Structure formats: C-alpha cells, structure tokens
Amino acid sequence: MSILQVTTTMILTLLAWVSLTQAADPTWPKELTFALLSTESAPEVTRRWEPILARLEKDLGIKVKQVMASDYRGTIEALKFKKAKIGHLGPKAYVEATNDNYANVEPVVQVRLANGSLGYRSCLIVHADSDIFSPEDIGGKTFAFNDPNSTSGFLVPTSYIFAANNIDPKACFKTVRNANHQANAMAVANKQVAAATNNSEDLQRLEMTSPEARAKIKIIWTSPIIPLDPIVWRKDLDPSIKAKLYTFMLGYGRVGSPDEIKVAKDLNALPHIEDKKDPKDIDPLKKTHAEQFKHLQDDNEGVQPSNEGSLTGSRAGTAAEAKGDPYILALIDQIGTAWTVPTTLKDSDLQNLSADVCLTIADSGALTNYTFMRKSGNSQFDSSLDATLGLIKATKKLPPPPEKWHGAASRGRLCPSFSKQ
Fold first, then answer.
1. Which of 63, 70, 62, 75 is nearest to 103 (CA)?
2. What is the rounded CA–CA span in Å between residue 34 and residue 184?
3. Where in the chain is the domain with CATH 3.40.190.10?
4. 47-101 tens-digit pLDDT
5. Contacts of 44 (CB under 8 A, 6+ apart)
C-alpha cells in the first residue's frame, strides 16, 4: 500500500470518528436494515453484533435495524427483495447472492480474524471419548450438517468428503439433521449426534463461551483454508450512505474507545474488517460449486499437497492417534516422556484430562510452532504441557516427519491428543 493510500485511509477513518455528532443527510431514509446470518442462536448473534450496529447507527444518524432469518437462504432473499440494504454473508451464500446478479449486491469488505487471518477451516467433530477417528469411521452413525447454504458446514465437507468419493450422505448415515454451528457443537458435546460439521472459527468461539462443552469435542478432519465472510450492500444503496458506511467499516476496530476496539478484536464479536472494496478481490469465489474450493491453496505456498482434504483428511486431526500410525505415536511418546505434570494433580484428576495441540514440524524434526486446539480446562495440566512444548521447541528435535506427513507437518496440521492416563 502506498503512503498516499495509507494517509487517505487514515484521514477517512479519523473523519468517521470526529464527525459523530453530524446530522444525517435529510434525503436519507429514516431506517437502514442490516441482514445477519443465523450462524448461531439468535440471542448470541444479536449479542455479538449489537455493539457494532449501535456504533453504526450513531455514526450514520439514522436507525440501523437488524433482521435475521431462520436460515442462510432467508438472508439472501431479504437482500434480494429489499428487506435489507446491507448484509453479512458466508462465501457460499455470497456466491448464491451474486450469481447472475440474483440479489443485486456487491462486496464491501471482508472480515478478518483478530490474528490477521483472512481464512478459516471446515471441521468434522465428534465427542472427545468417541471411537471415531477419521471420516472413514462415520458411516452408519447419526450426523449433523449445518445450513445447506453454509460454506464450512455443508459445501466444503460435501465436496471434499462425500462428492469426491461418490457417497450419498442420506444413504451413508443412520440419520441426518441440519442445525446452526452452535447447535451442532452442543449436540456433539451432549452426545445427541455422533458427528457433525463445524468450523475452526466457531470452535474457537465456543472455547471462550462454553469451555466445558469445547473440552468434550475433538476434531477428526479439517479442510484447506476457506476465505472469510464478505459484508455486502445492495448496488442501489444511496451513494452517500455507501461512502459513510465504507468509512465506518474501515475504521471500526482500529480507532474509537477501548471498549469498541475490544469488541471488534474479540473472537466472540465481529473480527477485524479488512479492506476488500474491489469486487474482484472477492469475486474469485464465484466459481462453479464443484470447483469452488477444490483449488484453494493452503497457508504455505510451495508446499506439495498431501492427503489433506481427502476422505481421510489430515488423519491426525485432534484425534491424533490416527488409528495407531507409528509416526503419530512416536510424537506422543517423545513429548509425553519429556512432560511432567504437577504432583498436585491426582491420578483420579488425570484420568479425565487431555489436550489437543497442533504441531508445526520442519523436515529436520524441529518443532517450529504449536497451537492448542483444545485445552483440558485444568490450568496446571495445560501449563505444564505448554512449558514442555516450549522447551522442545527451543532445545530439542522431534522425529522428522515421513513423506506421508510432510504436508500436514509443515502446515501445523498434526494435532495429537495428549493425556497422562
């Protein structure tokens, strides 16, 4: 980005915040409607978006009303029939809304996670004590998809796991149901279904809002990176409102009160908003559904593709036993040997504690990074494992990954489950 672009963005951002008391244009409508996706329960979606819409309402000087349909299709239809002028769409819903200009919308910005990422991953989840360790094991079980217009909860797993292997989910499972991401996660945690689709972003949010439920869930498959959601507006929205709205979106979470910045950065709230005004930045999503996610590149360019995204996915998942794979077991053994838990933890406590950690391992065996995908919920247990991994990263090497695990190891997709049982 050039100095002029940076300066212009800063000026526009500051203008948005110093003109808070400016009266609305008298030609504007008295109310602007914002359509939200029903990714979770209505109260939870409202809780996360309410501070943002309240700030927008104050900046615009007109009432901003939210509308939320019971499914993703309803959000698309609200935009098409002018029940909403602005909307939050998932990638697949965006494709549906813009194919043949169906809903007469265009992208404004793309959301960004607090860690700077512009992508997330689809996941298959099961209960932590389940004997299901890979997608190959889920046949004949009870299964839950998300909304049919959900990218991570329907399109991606359908494309990578079922369509790619000529499997009809309705014939594969004992029963199939559909629910939002939050409901599916809770259904797995409560053993109401054997397996379900979800995504990395919502599982991170669940760990913050309901850590006890997250501790009961393990991931058995993850997809390649999926682009994060676009915010769209109708093309016929008043240009002066567009200008004000665009300035607000660029500024929100970057300037303002500490509370407002925290809301934007908090994973429980709207992630950062990244400037993606030019439609061509998002329109590559508009490929045929069969090809849309087949060629998405992962984080590390130049890494040769592995078995990730196939039926077996990254079989380490968070069920890293991978059905006794020798390399995964060697990793668990070496790390477990170096790991000592505090003596204050009793054997009876340890029986119920485990944590899932995703490891990034170089070809040499050097541990270059690690991320907790699921903590045990016990701070002493988790801290001791964290300290052990930090020591290994700084001073030791792990077994070099064999060829079948090169791709997963280089991408941080080896995710063993550690316990001291």
1. 75
2. 26
3. 3-118+228-285, 120-226
4. 888 888 998 999 899 999 999 888 888 999 999 999 999 999 988 888 889 888 9
5. 182, 209
Which part of the chain has CATH 3.30.1150.10? 326-419
CATH 3.40.190.10 matches 3-118+228-285: yes
Instruction: Pull the structure tokens for residue 194.
Output: 């054997």
SS3 73: helix
Residue 246: CB atoms within 10 A of its CB come to: 18
Q: pLDDT tens for residues 62-76?
A: 999 999 888 888 999
Q: How far apart are alpha carbons 188 and 96 in whole angstroms?
A: 29
**Phi, psi at 412, each rounded to 5°:** 75, 35
Domain 326-419 annotated CATH 3.30.1150.10: yes
The two beta strands, 142-145 and 175-178, are parallel
Angle at the Cα of 147 from the Cα atoms of 143 and 149, rounded to 5 degrees: 130
Query: What is the pLDDT, as a whole number, of residue 112?
Result: 73
- Domain spanning 120-226: CATH 3.90.1030.10: no
Tokens representing 366 are 């050097």
Report whether 233 contacts 246 (CB < 8 A): no
Residue 115, amino acid? N
Find residue 360's DSSP bridge partners: 369
Nearest 5°: CA angle at 400, between 397 and 406? 130
Are the C-beta atoms of residues 232 and 94 closer than 8 Å to each other? yes
